[in-house]
Design brief:
Length: 160
């Protein structure tokens, strides 16, 4: 999961780097050749895009750095953590829900995936089977009992 995310972010970095170093300078050069830069919308658009690409590259590099510092062996083997698939039952309604905890940088969320920094992710982190997670919402507090847990260590590669 972590390696797959690193690869996706790395691909985006490569594309943006190419755009920053090759595509945008060409667009800026063409816009300058058109003449008066004060009223040249192509020039302004290219400069704005250049600023956006630089900011996004900085953000991606920071996230890649954080991902590189994650040691999968440090993730708990018996409680909810990154990559865990958790089944909970709402104590009030009796409804069963399944969640997969993902890193906040997941590019495409699938149904049931929650980030570790989301309210439900934070309430589930560190919980073990049989424990209650209190999910504090603006209008109420949900009590979710952890009934099943598969950590990142137990999941097969295709399940992650």
């Amino acid at each position: 999961m972590i390696e797959e995310l690193k690869a996706k972010l790395g691909d985006e970095v490569e594309k943006l780097q190419f755009e920053l170093n090759v595509t945008l300078p060409g667009e800026i050069r063409r816009a300058v050749e058109m003449g008066d830069l004060r009223e040249n919308s192509e020039y302004k658009a290219a400069l704005e895009r250049q600023q956006f690409v630089r900011a996004r590259l900085s953000q991606l590099r920071e996230r890649l750095s954080k991902l590189s510092s994650i040691d999968v062996e440090q993730i708990s083997h018996d409680s909810v953590g990154l990559g865990s698939r958790v089944v909970v039952i709402d104590e009030k309604t009796g409804l069963e829900e399944t969640y997969a905890l993902v890193f906040g940088d997941a590019l495409e969320f699938e149904e049931g995936q929650v980030t570790m920094s989301s309210p439900i992710g934070r309430s589930l982190l560190g919980k073990k089977v049989g424990e209650l997670a209190l999910l504090k919402l603006p209008t109420m507090v949900r009590k979710l009992k952890v009934t099943e847990l598969k950590t990142i260590h137990e999941l097969k590669e295709e399940e992650i």
